[in-house]
Automatic annotation (TrEMBL):
Membrane topology: Multi-pass membrane protein
Subcellular localization, as worded in the UniProt entry: Membrane
An annotated GO cellular component: membrane
Name of the protein: Membrane protein
Domain EamA: 11-137, 152-262
Segments crossing the lipid bilayer: 35-54, 66-84, 96-116, 123-140, 152-171, 183-202, 214-233, 245-261, 267-285
Length: 288
């Protein structure tokens, strides 16, 4: 397949898998607590990556690096726990819209901690993309009251997005000396170790539906597709496209969430907002 065609298709597959996690994560809540679901997801990811890491013969880290990876993993853990917790009180659509604030948060934190500056046209693109996401949310709810109805879950997920942005910034700062495979393995492994004592001693394991087939289908999907699948696609695409392309694709998440929920009428209703999102993609990814 022509590379000019393959890259946009793979980007859409990547953002589609990412978007599906918002819908699937909400389906897991009846079967497990946010902490238990996140811990199990990290454990399964670690087990899947362990054979690949073992074959690489490069698995040693210094004590300083382990501490850095523990902090990186801790912020990712907080994001996933926050996602599951927020879905108790708000919809997948609303989490998807809040998630589109991530590029702006990342730009701010990258400037604060790493001194990375963003072009004015890109910053305008991020603002336009955020506006398109809010438009989709308003259209989906058919009124403006949704913006005033700020709930506990909204605050939790906004904090979770800050945690994810910190995770990304710290990866740029500390995790560039190791291969992506090694970094992902240690992040998942240390996340498991951080969550396991909390799950065993403080979580309500009695409501964990260990024997429910539906739960295992969803958790395996999250592990194989929305964790490992997005990871390998990301590593491939980052060699071909700029990081800004990934930030820009975030603005398509609300539309994908509507698609996965089977709400085609809402997608048609949101076509103007979707076109604005594509305009934001152009502003962010175009050459200086």
């Amino acid at each position: 397949m022509n590379h000019a065609i393959a890259q946009p298709i793979l980007l859409l597959v990547w953002v589609g898998l990412l978007s599906s996690s918002f819908v699937v994560s909400g389906k897991i809540l009846p079967y497990a607590s946010p902490i238990a679901a996140t811990c199990l997801r990290f454990i399964l990811t670690s087990l899947c990556l362990a054979p690949l890491v073992w074959r690489s013969c490069n698995i040693k880290l210094t004590a300083k690096q382990i501490g850095q990876y523990a902090l990186i993993s801790g912020f990712l853990v907080l994001f996933f726990v926050g996602l599951f917790e927020s879905l108790k009180t708000i919809t997948a659509e609303k989490t998807a819209v809040i998630y589109t604030l991530l590029p702006l948060i990342s730009v701010f934190l990258s400037f604060m901690f790493m001194g990375i500056k963003t072009r004015a046209s890109q910053l305008f693109g991020f603002l336009v993309g955020t506006a398109s996401a809010v438009w989709m949310l308003i259209q989906g709810q058919s009124n403006l009251l949704i913006l005033d109805d700020w709930q506990y879950g909204d605050s939790v997920f906004l904090i979770a997005c800050f945690c994810l942005a910190m995770h990304v910034v710290l990866i740029k700062k500390w995790a560039t000396t190791q291969s992506a495979l090694i970094s992902t393995f240690y992040i998942a492994l240390l996340g498991s170790l951080l969550l396991l004592p909390i799950m065993l001693f403080y979580d309500d394991l009695a409501r964990f539906a260990w024997q429910n087939q539906t739960f295992w289908i969803w958790i395996i999907y999250l592990t194989l597709f929305t964790t490992l699948g997005t990871f390998f696609l990301q590593q491939h695409l980052l060699k071909k496209v700029s990081p800004n392309a990934f930030l820009a694709m975030t603005y398509l998440v609300p539309a994908f969430v509507l698609f996965f929920q089977g709400d085609l009428s809402q997608i048609l209703l949101n076509m103007p907002a979707l076109l604005i999102a594509f305009f934001a993609l152009y502003l962010i990814t175009r050459a200086p």
